[in-house]
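Input record (one chain):
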Amino acid sequence: MSKYSLEIIPKQIERIEILPKEKFQDIYVAFIPGDNYKNIILASKTLIDKGYNPVPHIPSRSILDEIQLNDFLLGLNNVGVKKILAIGGSPKNKIGIFDKTMDIFNTGILNNFDFNHINIAGHPEGNPDDSDSEKNLYEKCHWLNENNYKSTIVTQWTLNIEMTNNWIKKIKTFTEANYKNNFDISIGIAGPAKLSTLINYAKICGVSATSLIIKNKKFGLAKLLKHNPSEIISNLTKYDNVHFFPFGGINELSKWLELKKE
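The corresponding structure, as predicted from the sequence alone:
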């Protein structure tokens, strides 16, 4: 595997210059609560100008109404975006009429534009904001298939190898049986970072950090001990791609990739 994807926020765009470009094509642009959707459009254009393929987040709960949704998607379409990631977003920061991804799908607005790849989120360790995450994932898969979109299921960053492998097997079995395997699975992986940093992010993102906490207590080196992505990646099976969350910084991820031999 020589190509990875990466998740950034708009202010990190200049930092991607230090990445080994041959290893990346898709750069996901996170739309965090409180940001302006026009910043996501501008960031996406900048990425295209730099030779990358932007995949902006479309978080339903961060969009005010259908008028704003249309303006957001139109802006992305006009700068040349072809792939998007449709997600629910933060329920604590809902600002408008949309409660979930399917609410955006059901407006029909997406079909007015030239996007050919609509990605969706997956949660191998469960979603604390959605008790029916797998049922809702299947519903989104059905809609995407019916509307002839290519799609990749991009997961939350994972720490539980056994749970993630079981989830991959289950989702692959479902998509192969129903949609001739038209859905790739891109597994979210935290880039190299201090364990203490990952524990803090895990609490925010709803990821179980039990193994990290145990390791931290065992070694007592929270500020020194680092998470190595290889420990998880090498034990995962049957996924299609790796999607990096650079919690330790893009520079740390770049160094790790340069040292990694494939």
